[in-house]
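Now read the record:
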Amino acid sequence: MIRLFIKFYTILLMIDSILSFFPEMNKYPLRLRLKKICDFTCAPVRKFLPPTLPFDFSPMVVIFLLYV
């Protein structure tokens, strides 16, 4: 059951990461809900990452931590 949850959340994080490259998608309610769900775990990780990085690596860090 936990493995299924981790896989599902990993897929959500990947979809959110891909959709972040399309800013015009930010006006749709489903996209906003997905962002809110993913930011629950990514926002605390972003505090520890340097702000000068060219991309947001927090989803990769969260996925790595989930599988550890």
Observations:
- The first helix runs from residue 2 to 19.
